[in-house]
Amino acid sequence: xxxxxxxxxxxxxxxxxxxxxxxxxxxxxxxxxxxxxxxxxxxxxxxxxxxxxxxxxxxxxxxxxxxxxxxxxxxxxxxxxxxxxxxxxxxxxxxxxxxxxxxxxxxxxxxxxxxxxxxxxxxxxxxxxxxxxxxxxxxxxxxxxxxxxxxxxxxxxxxxxxxxxxxxxxxxxxxxxxxxxxxxxxxxxxxxxxxxxxxxxxxxxxxxxxxxxxxxxxxxxxxxxxxxxxxxxxxxxxxxxxxxxxxxxxxxxxxxxxxxxxxxxxxxxxxxxxxxxxxxxxxxxxxxxxxxxxxxxxxxxxxxxxxxxxxxxxxxxxxxxxxxxxxxxxxxxxxxxxxxxxxxxxxxxxxxxxxxxxxxxxxxxxxxxxxxxxxxxxxxxxxxxxxxxxxxxxxxxxxxxxxxxxxxxxxxxxxxxxxxxxxxxxxxxxxxxxxxxxxxxxxxxxxxxxxxxxxxxxxxxxxxxxxxxxxxxxxxxxxxxxxxxxxxxxxxxxxxxxxxxxxxxxxxxxxxxxxxxxxxxxxxxxxxxxxxxxxxxxxxxxxxxxxxxxxxxxxxxxxxxxxxxxxxxxxxxxxxxxxxxxxxxxxxxxxxxxxxxxxxxxxxxxxxx
Length: 609
Fold this sequence. Notes:
Elements: E1 5-10, E2 14-20, E3 30-42, E4 45-56, E5 63-67, E6 72-78, H1 92-95, H2 162-168, H3 179-193, H4 196-204, H5 207-213, H6 218-233, H7 247-255, H8 265-288, H9 297-304, H10 306-309, H11 317-328, H12 337-353, H13 355-370, H14 376-389, H15 395-407, H16 419-478, E7 515-519, E8 524-528, H17 534-543, E9 549-550, H18 565-569, E10 589-591, E11 598-600, H19 604-608
Antiparallel strand pairs: 1-2, 2-6, 3-4, 5-6, 7-8, 9-10, 10-11
């Protein structure tokens, strides 16, 4: 027989049961309901026992229908008490449990001494028991094993799974490690793992973190709807109506085996606090990945939950929050205190939505661990038991737990990692760097301003020099010859007209405007004219192509180095450089056709010497 998929809904007067039975014969089905019991049969589907949270009645208002397209039976059953609220209609595993096993009483009880068996009913005791040699406990495995898992009900599991141990939990040899030693080792490992540079980097450069903090998971909208409806009606409503289970989640609920847990007061406290720790880690994972699952999802959840990673047993809510905050700041990619407070807020919201919301989160964790090769062990130790147990607890317990969690305060000083001191020191360093940077900027601006002033002064000097050259040029243009022709040398060489001719034997006195240096070694003459502007020198060089000759001032020649227009039109034949005519009359300096090329002609007397 196949257990069919089903779901239950309600209104004030009716309970509606939708049963999915594809390929079944609608003409052959049986339905039985009475009080809190409901049974259904349609070959090959059989819903053997469905124990309802409230009583139903057969009064003629019941109705059943079959949808051939979807292959579903819809059965509407009237409530015995109209307006009664049936709690836990989404807890399918609990509804499928037999009625006699719904009690949490111990399955094994000690029978009173008065109920002794008679001697004839007493079985014969076998004295022949198997005997084994005595082994010293110090040489073998110690008999004492420290429990762990859901409600600390398991032990000896990791002795058989040593190969998987290192990939799942951080504590070594948990069966022989007491709870106090686990806690001490956990705190030491967290202190060694904490990296101030990583924390400060996420503290100052938190653009990506602020982005993920804006993500809103499904429970945020569900809580808003529930709060708005409660304000309008001024009464509490069923939180299950705001939580919707997928078909895959319903199928997983039907696969769970119903169990009863024998938990004392201390064990129940550990279970509730461990639930908070697991939900905090799950909320962090959903927030930073914005609801998407990846290969790191399983690692994030089990690493951030000390209940799963260190098999921790907490004693108060504050210890849970401090432990979770420390692990967030030590292990994952994003290590920001804002993510700790966000996970805390989300966990409170989930608990306020009731056990349906908690169960939906646990089913998601179960699926994540089931798809991760080493983490499936945590399903057997914790998550599967939590999924079954949460369906049987009262919603008032979760409401009280969420209220206590909401009142618990958590700050950075509680982390024990000197976060506030690190932040203050980092802020001071940052302010010093800004001050140094600002001072460097001011110095750079001053340097640029000084360079700009120097450049401006150079430009003004160059401008004044250009104006001086322009005025000299204007004076030169205004100078003309006696017959009205322009003389380019008149204005510039006005002071040099009385300059003597160059003599090879030495320089005569009176060369104030320019000096001619004669080098005996290289037989070259350099003309230095520091009083002439550079532009005029270039113009003089271009004019050197003209025929110009320096000699002893002949009679009738007014200026030296100036050639009149008549001489240019009627040039006289030049004597040979070493002709007899020129011998004894003086030394001549002729200008070559190349610019600035001067040639000294020595007298015959010097050649003879």
